[in-house]
Design a protein that fits this description.
By secondary structure, this protein is α+β, with helices and mostly antiparallel strands. It has 2 domains: about 1-45; about 50-230, Transferase(Phosphotransferase) domain 1 (Transferase(Phosphotransferase), domain 1), CATH 1.10.510. About 45% of the residues lie in helices and about 20% in strands. The chain has 7 helices and 10 strands. The strands form 3 sheets. A 6-stranded mixed sheet has the order 1-5-6-4-3-2. A two-stranded antiparallel ribbon has the order 7-10. A two-stranded antiparallel sheet has the order 8-9. Strand 3 and strand 4 (about 105-110) form a beta hairpin. Helix 2 (about 45-55) runs parallel beside helix 5. The radius of gyration is 24 Å and the shape is globular. The N and C termini lie far apart (about 85 Å). InterPro entries: Kinase-like_dom_sf (IPR011009), Prot_kinase_dom (IPR000719), Protein_kinase_ATP_BS (IPR017441), Ser/Thr_kinase_AS (IPR008271), WAK-like (IPR045274). It is a single-pass type I membrane protein. Keywords: ATP-binding, Kinase, Membrane, Nucleotide-binding, Serine/threonine-protein kinase, Signal, Transferase, Transmembrane, Transmembrane helix.
Length: about 240
Amino acid sequence: MSSVCLSNVGTGVGFISLLVLSSWVYFILMKRKILKLREKFFQQNGGLILHQQLCQQEGSTETVKIFTVDELQKATKNYDESRIIGRGGFGTVFKGFLADNKIIAIKKSKIEDENQIEQFINEVVVLSQINHRHVVKLLGCCLETQVPLLVNEFVQNDTLFKHIHQDSNASTFPWETRLRIATETAKAIWYMHSAASIPIIHRDVKSTNILLNDDFTAKVSDFGTSRLVPRNQTQLATVV
């Protein structure tokens, strides 16, 4: 009887060991598969070219970070619905918290456009040079996903559109504040057109793309349809 019990115990231990080993092998293979997929997306999204160009731009690597997919998943609780702060035809914007408790906004586009990878790289490089108080600051990007993700500073007081059209107190929104916001927006646009290292045409300036911070300072955002214009180019034809 004891030999039968020992045999059963041995069989059970062997089965459990085989199960653990199989699970471990499966985990390792899946991890390698995920890493290879991330590496593929990183190269596909121009990660090496972007890193090289950022290194050539003085100060860019200090201000713009290339985030890992794990960092942004953790920051947004794996893109939980409760973290959504904006949604539209452009995609979805999530609120995130980094390990140092810094609050960020992560723009996750809906559509993948492989033909615009070079444009995306140029946009990141140019925006990394902009340090204007009335333009939403680009903090970095993530290239390990099928669609590149942009990481911006978080602006907490919503859009100008909401304050003048949807807020119950819109009628009491002071005209002095409205004029100041208009002036600040104009300053940002002038800067992008005339003072940036490579002029940027925003092409989608509207109240939903003007964010306001806690003291109602304007921040121009959403450069998804913007165009970079070389200084030796005097005309630009676009379709909006």
